[in-house]
Amino acid sequence: MANTSRSPDGHDPEITLPVSARAPSPSSGSPGDTEPTAANDRLALNGMGSFDWDLDKGTYHLDDVGLEVFDLRADEFDGVPASLSARVLPTDSERLDNAVSLALREGHLTFASYFRLVCRDGTLRWAHTQGRILRDPQAHPYRIVGIVRNAEEELAHAEGMRTLAADRRRQTDSVRATTEALARAITVRDVTNVLTDSEGLRRFGADGLALGLVDGDVMRLVAVTEQPSAELRARDDLSLTHLEDGLPLSEAVLTRRARFVGTREELTTRYPRLLPYAEEMGIEAAAFLPLAAQARTIGALGLFYRGRHHFSTEDRNICIALSSAVAQSLQRAMLFDQEREFATTLQTTMLPRRIPEINGGEVAVRYRAGRSGREVGGDWYDVIPLPGRRVGLVVGDVEGHDSHAAAIMGQLRIALRAYATEGHTPATVMARASRFLADLDTERSATCIYVDADLETGTLRMVRAGHLEPLVRHSTGRTGWAGVRGGLPLGLATVFGQDGYPETRLDLNPADTMLLCTDGMVEHPGRDIADGIEALAAAMRAGPLGTEALADHLCGGDPSRLGSSDDVALLLLHRAAGPGARATRQMTQHVHQADPEGLAETRAMLRQALAAWGATDFASDVELTADELITNALVHTDGGALLTIELRAGTAPCIRLEVQDRSSVLPRRRTPGETATSGRGLLLVDALSGSWGVEPLGSGKNVWCEFPLAV
């Protein structure tokens, strides 16, 4: 049967010449046989031997060149084809027999095949044969004539061509892979990372790399894969050199021509200053490539080799092609870095240059730009000195990430600061800021939180406009989100006629720290915001005690854990610890008459305070008492109520609960009947608390009760 395996040249054979025959024949190489023809002479000149196989007579003629192909002398070939089979590998012999049988049977006219011979010294040699089958009028094959030749050089050439083609494919793949990697690089640092990693060196086929960028009239090395010793750098540091110093990278920039140096002798003779570097780092050859983009040379690339002595045309072409891709990527990255620096500078100039000192505590602020290029965020913070040794704290975020958002942010920050310094209440400051933004020629809105803080008393008056609530870390280490009622974002609130922002009062205890931040701290693409909120709370809880250190911890944390690629602005407010071994702790909450959620928020604040003070045993009694006193104030007066809960230390520690209202009418304890639906409030207060009373105020009254704690 015919063998269809591929020959060494990669082509399928047509019909295989047999080297063993079915009928023996006398050698046609003996004297007296057919004389060589002119055609035989021409074949011999081309290293080809001829054969003539008479199938009917069984004679087989193989000329002298053919004998040389089989590595036979004339006296070693007896004219029997089986003698040739001894020279052919058995697998090839069987394959050739089957193939010629098929060719004869199927009526083929020609054949050609490669096969392996075993020379007299035992080495293998590739040979090639091709011939023509002659047939009589009845299609009976009677003769085969053809040639046989040594195919070693041909196959070696073919193998070399295949290797060359593979090398070219690898080089093409290398250029493509490098170009794709550089296309993803955004900054100059990204480009240098692509070049200096192991894959970058592999693509260039180099053992080391140095990248220099032109900076005025000097060459500055920005990336190297291997640093020379400190002693060598101390003698002659090449990290910053003048373009006229005659060094190879500078020369490549000035001449704009690539230079390939194949030996260390040539390298050190032409550039003597490189001799100690070449000896220490084992450099044997180098390539120095200019990096030009848009008719301007921006730098040069040096490639170093430890074993190369020759640069082929393909090597030079691949280096030049890759250097062109590097130049284009570097130019784009340098432009990006310039734009980002411009955007960061613009953002920085719009934020406060100096944070004023505050009484009773300290403030730390941070801003982290998360966008790229000219994308400028609208996040901001501000710290505003107020009358009465108070301080105003602002954190906000204008919608959008462009220069327009930054411009609006600058105007809004200045307007809000002006309203605050005029002495307005937090609700008024926020309402006026909303109207200011609505009057601007823009469709942008802004979220914001404003805090009027008196750290001497710990009183915080807050207004929130679509912004994150504050996060408080108590001195005990417990962390929680403060319940601050909010309204619509600035601008939108005015458009919808809802800029009457509610105000919330909280008390920051001594040694407590409060965080105000923008949503970049909790939002991350592909992650639920609840996970981001929980991650931020955990980071706040686990962070260091110092305010500045905590700010660094939060803003410089893992972006996948804290926030996203968005901008981040944060402000930390820390109240200093009070004198004495145990400072008084107090929390205050306003409950507005028209606010249906006020009581629920008050209960949450009470539970939060009692848990922080370790007084959870009184939680239900305190909540029930507070509900009764607040309800009385809301039902029987014309305004809301101000609730204060305080942990009092000393010889008789207790939980003190106070509810203030604007009515001067004192409460009266009654004795309701069995079917009465009211009148039992003070009886309940008297039963649950240890003591209670009423204090008249200038405008209104204060109803208080105390819950004793075990000493």
Outline the fold blueprint.
Blueprint: H1 38-45, E1 48-54, E2 59-62, H2 64-69, H3 81-85, H4 90-106, E3 110-118, E4 124-135, E5 141-150, H5 152-184, H6 188-196, H7 198-204, E6 208-215, E7 218-224, H8 230-235, E8 240-242, H9 248-255, E9 259-261, H10 264-270, H11 275-281, E10 285-293, E11 296-305, H12 313-350, E12 361-368, E13 377-386, E14 390-401, H13 403-421, H14 426-439, E15 446-454, E16 459-465, E17 471-473, E18 479-481, E19 486-487, H15 492-495, E20 504-507, E21 513-517, H16 529-542, H17 547-555, E22 568-575, E23 585-591, H18 598-613, H19 619-636, E24 641-648, E25 654-661, H20 681-688, E26 691-697, E27 700-708
Parallel strand pairs: 16-19
Antiparallel strand pairs: 1-2, 1-5, 3-4, 4-5, 6-7, 6-11, 7-8, 9-10, 10-11, 12-22, 13-14, 14-15, 15-16, 16-20, 17-18, 17-21, 21-22, 23-24, 24-25, 25-27, 26-27
Sheet with the most strands? 6 strands, antiparallel
The count of β-strands is 27
pLDDT averaged residue by residue: 80
Rg, Å, rounded: 46 Å
Q: Tell me roughly what share of residues is in helical segments.
A: 25-40%
What separation lies between the terminal Cα atoms? 107 Å
**Structural class based on helices, strands and sheet pairing:** alpha+beta
Unreliable segments of 5+ consecutive residues: 1-36, 558-564, 580-584, 673-678
Number of helices: 20
How would the global form be characterised? elongated
- Beta-sheet strand percentage? 25-35%
- Strand order across the largest sheet: 8-7-6-11-10-9
The assembly state of the depicted protein chains is single chain
Summarize the structure.
The protein is built from 20 helices and 27 strands.
